Amino acid sequence: MTIETIAATAHPSVAGSQIDAKPTGNASALRFITCGSVDDGKSTLIGRLLVDSKSVLQDHLAGVQRGGETDLALLTDGLSAEREQGITIDVAYRYFATEARKFIIGDAPGHEQYTRNMVTAASSADAAVVLVDATKLDWKNPQLPLLAQTRRHSLLVHLLRVNALVFAVNKLDAVDDPALAFANIRNALATFAQAAGITVAATVPVSALKGWNVVTPHADWAGYQGPSLLQLLEKLPATPADTGQPFAFAVQWVEKFSSSADTSQGRRVFWGKVATGDVAVGTAVQILPSGQRATVAQVLDHTRQAKNRGAGQSAGIVLDREVDVSRGDWLIAAPVAAAAADDDFDAPAEQAAWPATREITATVAWMDNEPLVPGRVYQALHGRRWIKAKVRKVLHRLDINTLERQAAEQLEPNAIGRVEITLQEAIPAAPFARSRELGSLILVDPASNSTAAAVLVE
Description:
Layout: H1 16-19, E1 30-36, H2 42-52, H3 58-62, E2 65-66, E3 69-70, H4 80-85, E4 92-97, E5 102-107, H5 115-122, E6 127-133, H6 148-159, E7 164-170, H7 178-196, E8 202-205, H8 229-235, E9 248-256, E10 268-276, E11 278-279, E12 284-288, E13 293-300, E14 309-310, E15 314-319, E16 330-333, E17 336-337, E18 350-351, E19 357-366, E20 377-382, E21 385-398, E22 405-406, E23 416-427, E24 440-444, E25 451-457
């Protein structure tokens, strides 16, 4: 999967197919992040959402007063370095709820050097609000160029399969002609999104500082007649679980009951989260990397009650016999017999639900301070398993401004490219477009122990 091969339509305003459904009081919580370039107003926007939705205690609000004015950004920028420099460095999570829905917000940093923090937040998000500062753009120009970080964050959100993307054009209250500025910026965003294959749920004008179109609509402002940002977020769908896929489960913790006298089944519980599919008593599974097979004897929920579990849910699994399973191993659906041809006299070969492989082609977002050079060995994390990985070849680098593929021998910090990777041992890697859990890895520099790249399997 690459950005260029995903066909989607970008819309300059609300995409009805995604937000027409009316929310209900028991709608699932929405995890969303705010991202974009430096000083576009991300922290201020979150502060405005919290204050105007009455989700901030009075003593907390009193603690963010500066010169008699409320500094909304301080509600999320809690690190001393953030408050001293007036920037966001690490991801800050905040929680609030309306009558329609609960929300978990991640305030992602805008600086290039903290891109890894933004990727971490986006990897588990249902939606992303990409802020665009109107005052930084040549808003009078119908062909105005977008900031590089706006493009980069939008591309990363798209690559990471974030379910919905909303553009929020901020600080329009500070320009002379808000309607013209919003129209030109909206068109530039739509043109970029369409070229990149990004589906846009909505584009909305806001003033985070004054609160216009954040929680309540500001009628007839900037030529916009649609709902406010919060009203849009209340109707966005959560990311659907991969329940329609074959079963896959990464073992996170092994609980032993060696003192049990029951030898009719295994005496260990394998805890973790179901990555894809569902599991029930009687499910035939294969353990990777050993290749051994077993049958599920018990399935427990987080309260240790017997209960079938599906994708995205935590589970404890007991097998019908003692099998060597450790943290990092995968339990996957057992292979099934492939259909035999009419003239095939041999027994049909088995077809693995999630084939294991050592060779992968992937899109990577390179986040290390040192460039990616083919031939170097990194530590890779897939699910809960650590393995060694070597980048064999850089196939191309993506120019975030022109969206063209460029020949490259290495990837610089914050670059996005396509590479070939060889792993020390086979893993059940699947295309990221099919499974976010099985199709993603991270590369870690063994010398510095820092996260070097987010890897999305093609």
